[in-house]
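## retry 2 of 3
previous attempt timed out at serialization; input unchanged, resubmitting
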Amino acid sequence: MSPFVWFHNHSENPKQTKDFYEQLASWQSSDGPAGTTMFQVEKAPMAGLGVKEGGPAGWLPYLQVDDVAAATKRALKLGGTLVREKTRGPAGEYSVVRDPGGATVALWQKA
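## retry succeeded, writing output
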């Protein structure tokens, strides 16, 4: 598996969150797909921001994998729990698992 390749912030207040990171970290922002704000550094996209949907607010890191289904199966075998089944996104497929310590991570396969 690769290191983290993407980060997504699920926010209760996307406008204030956008302003916060623009001022704190000097990130540039632009409109992304389906109401998502894209953050970029030196014109390279590195994170997204969207409205919290059911789960907790916070950052979700994405690990790039070769096969989402196989990586999800392996995560569950290692003691993880499934948070979100394989889903198709704009750039590929992903699932979300919770590690044995309670943290969530997305397993992402490029389209």
